[in-house]
């Protein structure tokens, strides 16, 4: 479950990481009053669940109301790599002396949390890792001990953070680790972690501050964090996935054109593989679970067909406790009800397992237009790939 920058910054603030205060807004007028409130100059930032907003023109500085109006107007509704901007974050602009990078994630192969730090932040961190790997410090943390201040200080020192901000960087790393651990995050990243120029003269020391926030929370641990429940960002979520969630259907949208439905998560995943192997590209993952309930099948079919990209649909059903003839009856009732045959989208149904012969016989007898019956998974995959490509596969069942 990915968080928007401003939501991530709220979690940062909760754990003592320094961030600029600001406001999320959805209109130009609200952007202007927010800017007035935080004080110019402000930075106007697109809130979308994708990085590289700066390069795409989704992060702009404004010195005054005129500039703020122009930038807010340009960024609202902007498409950033396929994500439409509905929300802006307005914060008081920071002066930047230098940009660092920091992150915490779980290194599964080492079975330990991994803290990463670099003084070459701001830019593409993948590029730093590839071209100047020595500039990226990787430090594994003992999960039972946690990250101590001394350890964090050693990371900052090894990473060659400026001497006057070593303590500040260490504090930020410890706080970031706390965010990652206590919020059940799978990733907590700051890029850039900035050092401010500080004010002239002696009293004004340089500050270390998070200018961006990228947090992914473990959705399975959300029940431990009722206060984070509201962060699930329905507006930026895929509308079909949101609808599926509301309907209690296990659905994940994918990029292809072949709708998939199966009973059982493992079977659906193998179906995706087999379709890909046959040269096709799945449009979704959908696990209909057990049962042959026509109502449930109907709901699933409607969800699959709501995706305009879908050109053909594959039903992969394995009869276990749920008998194949029952499933067939559910399918026939659902297809009748929705009038699937009237649509131009062909269906392939593969039915195997308990009472499969009887199930396929029922489907064949129903002679649903545009519904093809297959016995094996490979056969079904090849049929659906051909159908999606606009090729025939012989007479419908
Ligand atoms: P990203 O492009 O999606 O990673 O968005 P960021 O939040 O990291 O912002 C991109 C870049 O905009 C940063 O690396 C900064 O250089 C710049 N930027 C963001 N906020 C400020 C700010 O308050 N002041 C200044 N001077 N630059 C900023
Ligand atoms: Mn960034």
Describe this structure in words.
This protein is an alpha+beta fold. The protein is 35% helix and 24% strand. It contains twelve helices and 18 strands. The strands form five sheets. Strands 7, 8, 9, 10, 11 and 12 form a six-stranded antiparallel beta sheet that branches. The longest helix is centred in the middle third of the chain and has 17 residues, at 166-182. The chain is elongated. The two termini are 42 Å apart. The model has no long low-confidence stretch (mean pLDDT 91). The chain binds guanosine-5'-diphosphate and manganese (II) ion. Residues 43, 51-54, 59, 93-94, 96, 99, 122, 191-192, 211-212 line the site of guanosine-5'-diphosphate (GDP).
SSE topology string: HEHEEHEEEEEHEHHEEEHEEHEHEHEHEH
Relative helix content: 25-40%
Number of helices, where a helix is a run of at least 4 consecutive DSSP H or I residues? 12
Coarse morphology? elongated
- Averaging pLDDT over every residue, what do you get? 91
Query: Whole-Å distance between the termini?
Result: 42 Å
Low-confidence stretches: none
> What's the gyration radius in Å?
26 Å
**Main beta sheet:** 6 strands, antiparallel
Structural class: alpha+beta
What percent of residues are in strands?
15-25%
Chart the SSEs and their pairings.
Elements lengths: L4 H10 L7 E4 L2 H11 L3 E5 L12 E4 L2 H11 L3 E2 L2 E2 L3 E5 L5 E10 L4 E7 L6 H7 L4 E5 L8 H10 L7 H17 L2 E11 L12 E3 L3 E4 L21 H9 L2 E4 L4 E5 L2 H13 L6 E4 L6 H12 L6 E8 L4 H15 L8 E7 L2 H11 L4 E4 L2 H12 L9
Parallel strand pairs: 14-16, 16-17, 17-18
Antiparallel strand pairs: 1-6, 2-3, 2-6, 4-5, 7-8, 7-10, 8-9, 10-11, 10-12, 13-15
Helix pairs in contact: 2-3, 5-6, 9-10, 10-11
